[in-house]
Amino acid sequence: MLNRYPLWKYLLILLVLLVGLIYSLPNLFPADPAVQISSDRGGVTVDERQVERIRTRLDEAGIEVQAVEREPASVLIRLESTDDQARARDLISDMLGGDYTVALNLAESTPEWLQSLSASPMTLGLDLRGGVHFLLEVDMEAALAQRLEVNASAMREMLRDERIRYRNTEIGTRSIRMDFMNAEDRDAARRLISREYPGFDFQNRDAGRGAALRMTLTDQQVEEIQDYAINQNLTTLRNRVNELGVAEPLVQRQGPARIVVELPGVQDTAAAKRIVGATANLEFRLEARPDTPEAETQTFPFRNEPSRSATLMRDVIITGDSVSSASRSFDENGRPQVNIDLDGTGGTLMNRATRTNIGRNMAVLYIEHKTRERTVMEDGEAVTVRDPYTERGIISLATIQSALGNSFRITGLDSPTEAAELALLLRSGSLAAPIYFAQERTIGPSLGAENIERGVLSVQIGLLLVVAFMLVRYKVFGVFATLALALNLTLLVAVMSMLGATLTLPGIAGIVLTLGMAVDANVLIFERIREELRTGLSVQQAIHAGYERAFTSIVDANITTLLVALILFSIGTGPVKGFAVTLSLGILSSLFTALMVTRAMVNLTYGGKPVKTLRI
Asked: Domain SecDF P1 head subdomain: where (predicted)?
């Protein structure tokens, strides 16, 4: 019989619409602004009395508390508005002191029954949720200097193994200079080093009564080092951002030496900046013996006691690059420490260095690259000049009791917070070159809320105009199209929520465009039905022919648009990808609602009934 679906098809459509409704519901429950309190000493130590004091203090300050929730390692205080968050954090920090970390947060408010179905709201992008935008600049000269330091250390070890004597090593802008007692030692060193380091140009130089060898990086090698530095920094920054737990962050290269980092939803910008921009690394070195030549040693102060210092060997056993995992814990006296696991190469080097130096001291050197900014006048304009500098300090100097392997621990840290951040930086990897903040932009939650309001308003206006046109033009069939349009929007939101897609302003533009395109298929079908009625077909035959004969045109038109959306997604950046995602999902959901949902409504209304006239 014409215009009748089998029961299973109605049930399938109903099931899809029900699932779409359930998984779109969490978007009606926006996240609550909150303040999260955690203890630096591990475990939840904020007792009920302190919570009540906090409640009272916030009430006195006019800050309304929605709820207080205890989590396994923290206390979460839900607030009414984002305007109260910063004030609440400052008040709580003053009350609890330095033993606690008080951070801004956004707490989900999705009902538990929806959470039990793994239903969650859409992730909002930086322009809707607020957050921070960093433009970072990689110090390429520092990348070259670090590589030359590593190469020089390896060259010295190679010469010692081959018993080739050298006097001194100097590192220039892009070169290494080594002095020798005579030309024979220099020539032997040149033959040995040139085989292992083909990326240098070698030049013999005179050095008073001795001989010297100057090794300069080739242009190709410089490009390779700089390209490695930017790619390694990209990887490290992505790891650090993942450790921060930010949903849908953006970390991408911009130009030859810059990196863009966008962190949606991050409100504690100081903490994010400290983690993202930290350039801390570790070096493990042996303490120098009294008879070690001065050219092979370096003296560093202790990080916690600048008045103390120790003289270390210039050669490095391993760096933080060899760390495979790191975690914060506490020693038997309750002091913070970092437990470290090394990779295979790092464990071998550590074992080789310690098994032959039992009873000798080994130091852990903490290295941090920083900058000082100063303002100078150039051509009558104030210009900010950035002066990079490096701080090196010993955080641990301990006697080697036995040969170390892949696992050991670092002590001597100031606080649990410092231990946690050091463990995070070691887990995520060290930067291949220092990075500096060239630009910092913060988008507040209030601006994001304003963008959401305008986006929702644009969707409502677009929906209203489309509905008005369809009702005036197609009467009862316009009602079917309007209901399908609402269901299409529900399905689109549900699918984006289920896939964890990020909604941005361009994504909202894609939704508005989808609404217009969604009725395009219905217009083709309804106009086709009108044509069939004008040719003299019965109502049932006209409806059947309208849907059947418009099907090919609808699929062809939407497939070409879908292909364009896929191309945009594959070659576009963040905002363009957001537009492409919503457009692609919108096309698929509109095909379902236009071809199946409206057909089911028409079948239930007119199918199998003696209808003489059709209001269309």
From this structure: 299-433
What are the C-alpha distances in Å from 341 to residues 19, 325, 421, 423, 467?
46, 5, 16, 11, 63
Q: Can you tell me the distance from the alpha carbon of 237 to that of 124, in angstroms, rounded to the nearest whole number?
A: 21
| Assigned token pair, 224 | 């390779």
Strand partners, 203: 214
Cα angle for residues 3, 6, 11 (degrees, 5° grid): 115
Q: In this structure, what token pair is assigned to residue 246?
A: 């930010």
DSSP state of 320: G
Distance CA 110, CA 152 (A): 58
DSSP state of 298: E
Count of CA atoms in the C-beta half-sphere (13 A) of 357:
21
C-beta of residue 614 within 8 angstroms of C-beta of residue 542 = yes
Tens of pLDDT along 102-115?
766 777 888 888 88
Closest by Cα among 350, 362, 282, 367 to 321: 282
- pLDDT tens per residue, range 312-366: 998 888 887 777 777 888 877 778 888 888 888 888 888 888 888 888 988 888 8
Listed residue (115, 172, 133, 24) closest to 494, CA to CA: 24
**Structural contact between residues 31 and 109, judged by C-beta atoms closer than 8 angstroms:** yes
In this predicted structure, which of 112-116, 542-546, 577-581 has the lowest mean pLDDT?
A: 577-581
- Cα–Cα dist 419/200, whole Å: 40
> Mind listing the pLDDT tens digit for each residue in 474-501?
888 889 988 998 899 899 999 988 887 7
Note whether 125 and 507 are within 8 A (CB).
yes
